[in-house]
Amino acid sequence: MLQHLAWIVSxxxxxxxxxxFIHVVRQSQFADDEHTTAAAxxxxxxxxxxxxxxxxxxxxxxxxxGLPYRVADAAQAPIVVEAxxxxxxxxxxxxxxxxxxxxxFHVTADDVNHGFSxxxxxxxxxxQTQAMPGVTNVLRYTFTAPxxxxxLCLEYCGLAHHNMTAEIQVVAE
Length: 173
Ligand code: CUA
Known about the structure:
Blueprint: H1 2-27, H2 34-63, E1 79-86, E2 89-92, E3 96-98, E4 102-109, E5 114-119, E6 125-131, E7 137-142, E8 147-153, E9 166-171
Parallel strand pairs: 1-4, 3-9
Antiparallel strand pairs: 1-2, 4-7, 5-6, 5-8, 8-9
């Protein structure tokens, strides 16, 4: 949805820039003395400045209204799941979690880099982060539907990389 909107806005901006170019090319055919050119330019400079100011100040102000981004619902402490990658398996501190509650995966690795990823039953990617030795990456995710989710490895980590799977049951409370 957002990507679609961004695509349309980009197309419109490209069209506007193309229009300006065409206008400049056409105007360049007419000779003009430098005083009129300078006066017209300064008039336009003012207009453009105020147009951009009036457009961008509210847009930027609006885009900041989400701040500070909620780390997690303050009323609901997240459920912590420790996840550690090994060649070639996942070790999870629990593999049954409730639906609709924020889960905080603390993801790390024992040996080499792995890619920790959560897939739903239709194998649609829901969330992912790197699993790195010596580093704990925090991945916050709230499951919105119950079911069997898969943990797969998204980074080639050796011969049995493809076998590196685990399951998480998401249950209604
Ligand atoms: Cu672990 Cu690929």
